[in-house]
Write a structure and sequence with these properties.
Number of helices: 6
Largest sheet: none
Shape: elongated
Structural class: mainly alpha
Strand content: under 5%
Order of helices and strands: HHHHHH
Distance between the termini: 54 Å
CATH superfamily of the domain at 69-173: TspO/MBR protein
Radius of gyration: 19 Å
Number of strands: 0
Oligomer: single chain
CATH architecture of the domain at 69-173: Up-down Bundle
Length: 173
């Protein structure tokens, strides 16, 4: 078992194994909750994002607003599982720092872009977010390649979102 705290060579009883497995799933729920908090923090106080998005001048390749919810839901689950897989290998260690940084930058983007209308500052945030995801993928690939792979669709979506943010910022200056 790769869960932190497991010592090789120790004999475990069925109850101890169940306790470790139960703890692992509690931590998974914690990772998913942390990602959900980042999403909710990003949305708190920002009402009418769909209307705001529709009112902005956009490039012809901009997706419809209804697409963002389903895409982000899938991505957030993948982000949560990715962090959890790394935790299972290394516990609460420095390798999770970039993970926390990218979650924070992710949470800040929506209030900047929609809440404050600071699309230029949101563009800076999303570029730094892109770099933080790269850092996270780089760290995770050494520990658990599948965890890094789970972040690739997120990184691709943020690449697209960066181009969209830049276009909207330019068209609405």
């Amino acid at each position: 078992m790769n869960e932190p705290g497991y010592r090789h060579g120790m004999h475990s009883t069925g109850a101890a194994t169940e306790t470790r497995a139960g703890r692992a799933y509690v931590v998974l729920a914690g990772f998913l909750a942390a990602v959900a908090v980042a999403a909710v923090v990003g949305a708190v106080g920002v009402q009418g994002t769909t209307d705001t998005y529709k009112q902005l001048e956009q490039p012809g390749w901009a997706p419809p607003s209804w697409l963002f919810g389903p895409v982000w839901t899938v991505l957030y689950v993948m982000i949560g599982v990715s962090g959890w897989l790394v935790w299972r290998r290394v516990g609460w260690s420095r390798e999770l720092i970039p993970y926390g940084v990218q979650l924070l930058l992710n949470a800040v983007w929506t209030p900047l872009f929609f809440g404050s209308g600071l699309r230029g500052l949101a563009l800076i945030d999303i570029v730094v977010l892109w770099l933080a995801i790269a850092w996270t993928v780089w760290e995770f690939r050494r520990i658990r390649p599948v965890a890094a792979a789970l972040l690739l669709p997120y990184w691709a979506w943020v690449t697209f979102a960066t181009a969209l943010n830049a276009s909207i910022w330019y068209l609405n200056r």
